[in-house]
Amino acid sequence: MLGFIKRIAFSKLRNAIIRLLCYAEAAFRTEIKRRQLAEAAEKRQMEASSRGIKNIYSVEQKKKKQEEIEKRMAASGPGGEGGLRWQVG
Fold it and tell me: By its UniProt entry, which PANTHER family does this protein fall under (predicted)?
């Protein structure tokens, strides 16, 4: 009878240890996943911040063109259209 009780106690102890190890492994995997997601987010943020204006000349030309269009529209004044204007750009 005592041997039977020892086997049951050992079995319960073994099962408890297995559950504990499974929980620890799951927590470890979760931590790894969290760290990977954080690193990926940081990498995306660095890539986004390193992107700049690649063609400054093109941006300046677009800005000048937009200013010219706005000057022409301001010079023409509000017409019979109720002051509504199309916006280009």
Answer: SMALL VCP/P97-INTERACTING PROTEIN, SMALL VCP_P97-INTERACTING PROTEIN
Distance CA 74, CA 67 (A): 10
Terminal-residue alpha carbon distance, the chain? 89
pTM of the model: 0.40
Do residues 85 and 73 touch, judged by C-beta distance below 8 A?
yes
- Separation between Cα atoms, residue 69 and residue 48, nearest integer Å: 31
Characterize 30-50 residue by residue with b for buried, 16 or more Cβ atoms within 10 angstroms of its Cβ, and e for exposed.
eeeeeeeeeeeeeeeeeeeee
Mind listing the pLDDT tens digit for each residue in 45-70?
A: 877 766 776 777 888 899 999 999 99
C-alpha span between 59 and 24 (Å, rounded): 55
- Which tokens hold the place of 17? 């240890």
